[in-house]
Amino acid sequence: MSSLLKYSGVVLGMLFCFTLQAQDTGIDAFNLNSNSNNLQGKMLGEVHTLSSEANYFFLYPDDWVPGSVTFVDGNVHENMQLRYQAFEDELISYNENGRFLYLVEKELVKSFSFKDGLTTRKFVRLTQDNNQQTNMYLEELYKADLSLLVNWYIYEQTVSPYVDRNGITRAVDYQLHKDYYLYTEEDGLNKIRLNKRALYTQFPEQKKEIRKLLRKNNLFINGELSMVKALNLLQENNLTK
């Protein structure tokens, strides 16, 4: 009997410690394995470990920022700590309770947004239903019948050997770049430069009207904001078809 009591006491003690540990981390350990998790309600994703290379060169912004994720089923998860992994086109979230990272399951994501300083950046996911490759995140700068989207990516190039901040000698440099696209549901993505000539090329039949409209509004296209203003003017004057 004494042996049975001792055994029962040990088992109860282990269960008690296990319960405390689960409460401390905020993780339901019975639903968590090495490949996936079911955290923050219906938020699904894969437990993730960042290499030092990815942490320093591939993530945007430079630190974890508050954001929200909208799923294709309409569910919205807010007040999450997010960063965008531009090299592999993945959304990564930091779970503050469990203190670990996970890749948000891309197939479930419709869009996500986060704070970048004073700017809120929104990314949408294009799929084969949008005449594009599956699971492609792009920033949405302007949404209309003719939208302006941005593809963030990491450009890798060979350079002269140098020592990075961790004292590691490298011969490769990584730079964050952006490509801009006009998008319609019918035609998909068309790459564009941020200047007026690109608009003339995109709409050759309306070139004269577009030139006149830009001149009238004293609008010189040389960046994201001015291109958004130009597209809005074209939309208002029915010149985007």
Question: What do you see in this structure?
Answer:
The protein has helices at 2-25, 52-57, 196-202, 207-216, 224-236; strands at residues 37-39, 43-48, 59-71, 76-85, 90-95, 100-104, 109-116, 119-126, 136-142, 147-163, 169-184, 188-192. By secondary structure, the protein is an alpha+beta fold. It folds into three domains: 1-30; 32-192, no CATH class; 193-241, no CATH class. It has a twelve-stranded antiparallel sheet. The longest helix is centred in the first third of the chain and has 24 residues, at 2-25. Residues 1-42 have low confidence and may be disordered.
Tell me the total number of β-strands: 12
Low-confidence stretches: 1-42
Rg for CA atoms: 24 Å
- Return the average pLDDT rounded to an integer: 75
Order of strands across the main sheet: 1-2-6-5-4-3-7-8-9-10-11-12
Tell me the β content.
Answer: 35-45%
Q: Give the helices and strands as they follow along the chain.
A: HEEHEEEEEEEEEEHHH
Indicate the percent of residues in helices: 10-25%
What class do helices, strands and sheet pairing give?
A: alpha+beta
Summarize the structure.
By secondary structure, this protein is of the alpha+beta class.
Could you give the topology of this structure?
Layout: H1 2-25, E1 37-39, E2 43-48, H2 52-57, E3 59-71, E4 76-85, E5 90-95, E6 100-104, E7 109-116, E8 119-126, E9 136-142, E10 147-163, E11 169-184, E12 188-192, H3 196-202, H4 207-216, H5 224-236
Antiparallel strand pairs: 1-2, 2-6, 3-4, 3-7, 4-5, 5-6, 7-8, 8-9, 9-10, 10-11, 11-12
Helix pairs in contact: 3-4
